[in-house]
Amino acid sequence: MKICPQCRKTYADDNLNFCLEDGSVLSVAPAQPLMPETIIMNEPPVTQPQAPPSQPGSQPGWQQPQQRPLQQQQYSMQPPKKSSKTWMWVVGILALVFLLCGGGLVAALFYIGSQADKIASLANTTIERSMSPTPSTNRSSTTTSTSARTDLTTVDLNMFVKEFSVYGTTEMNGDELTMGSIKKGFYYVLVAPDQYTTEASDTRVTVRNINDANSSLGYGLIFHSNPQPLQQDYAFLIDTKRKKFEVVHHEPQKESIVVKWTGSPAINGGTADNMLEVRDQPDKIEMYINGTMVTSITNIYGYAGGVVGLYSGDGVKIAFKDLEIRR
Fold first, then answer.
1. Which residues contact 321 (CB under 8 A, 6 or more apart)?
2. pLDDT digit string, tens, across residues 223-282
3. Do residues 86 and 79 touch, judged by C-beta distance below 8 A?
4. Residue 205 · residue 280 · CB < 8 Å
5. How far from the centroid of its chain's Cα atoms is residue 242's Cα?
6. In sequence order, what are the beta bridge partners of 256?
7. Cα 168–171–172 angle (5° rounding)?
8. Residue of 252, 253, 250 whose CA lies nearest to 237
């Protein structure tokens, strides 16, 4: 008897050499029938699963079902570790209670209670300290003083008038420069030439909100500025509607808060004049409104040899006059 090695069909004619189904060369059939190989490949023993063979082009997903159970197992092992430590503490405490029974137990309880009182007292102290204000150089004050600097330079406001600007408008009305940004949400800054430096000087200007209009951005005095506007400077700003002041500094395309909006009774409301003054001292910069110091800061962001300038925000028309520098 012969058998086809491909389709496993058997032939009783020993003179036949080729399979009539697929043309394969026939071989002599063994005495015992062979078990199909597909049974061995598709049904491995349950207790010892076979890993799929590594073949070129096989998907990496083969290993994902193995990795996830391992990760879950490691995570689930963490809680038992905590519980085991808890039992160790419980056993230790019970042993301590056992050793200190009687008068020793009472003494132990008294000691634990006293330690709890100390911990509670320490916690209260910590809370009180955390509630106390953080020391800062940005503080309000009612200090009034007269500067000893007398070398006066008056800045001609006509130099700030621009025939046309896409950022804002400027015009002279008598001795006042009227200045405003082109629309709300924007601010307009102009700075003086490099000879009008504000270092080691007292710089002041009088501002007036012509229409008592709202301005969330404020308006006021630029100092320690790069001669190119809004590159590096400070701005001392007020909002007479809210009677608040703010200090900001500029980097290219960025305005950052130095002193947030703070209320001050030194500010005159409505359309009244307000004199803003910046005094550059060796160790700090003092800022005054109508002769009253309202805050002081450390010079961190000022431009070395920086100049004076003017700031108006939110499309509000602001009048500036008496721009002066004293050294």
1. 157, 175, 176, 177, 205, 206, 208
2. 999 999 999 999 999 999 999 999 999 999 999 999 999 999 999 999 999 999 999 999
3. no
4. no
5. 29
6. 249
7. 150
8. 250
DSSP assignment of 109-175 equals HHHHHHHHHHHHHHHHHHHHHHHSPPP-S------B-------EEE--GGGG--S--SSEEEEEETT
DSSP string, 215-231: -SS-EEEEEEE-SSTTS
How many CA atoms lie within 13 Å of 195's alpha carbon, on the beta-carbon side?
4
Do the strands 168-173 and 187-191 form a parallel or antiparallel pair, or are they unpaired? unpaired
Among the listed residues 236, 214, 226, 165, the one whose alpha carbon sits nearest the alpha carbon of residue 318: 214
Pair type for strands 318-326 and 152-154: antiparallel
Question: pLDDT (tens digit, 9 = 90+) per residue, 5-55?
Answer: 888 888 788 887 888 888 888 888 776 544 443 333 444 444 444 444 444
Please state the pTM of the whole predicted model: 0.59
> Positive or negative CA dihedral for 282, 288, 294, 295?
negative
Q: Please, what are the domains in the chain?
A: 1-43 (no CATH), 152-326 (2.60.120.560)
Nearest CA-CA partner of 198 in 254, 157, 153: 153
CA distance 27 to 17: 8
The answer for residues whose C-beta is within 8 angstroms of residue 79's C-beta and 6 or more apart is: none
**Cα 156 from chain centroid (whole Å):** 42
Beta carbons within 10 angstroms of residue 146's beta carbon = 6
The helix or strand, by DSSP H or E, that contains position 252, with its residue range, turns out to be none
What gap in Å lies between CA 187 and CA 315, rounded to an integer? 7
Q: Do residues 20 and 7 lie in contact, with contact meaning Cβ atoms separated by under 8 Å?
A: no
The two structure tokens encoding residue 75: 């995570």
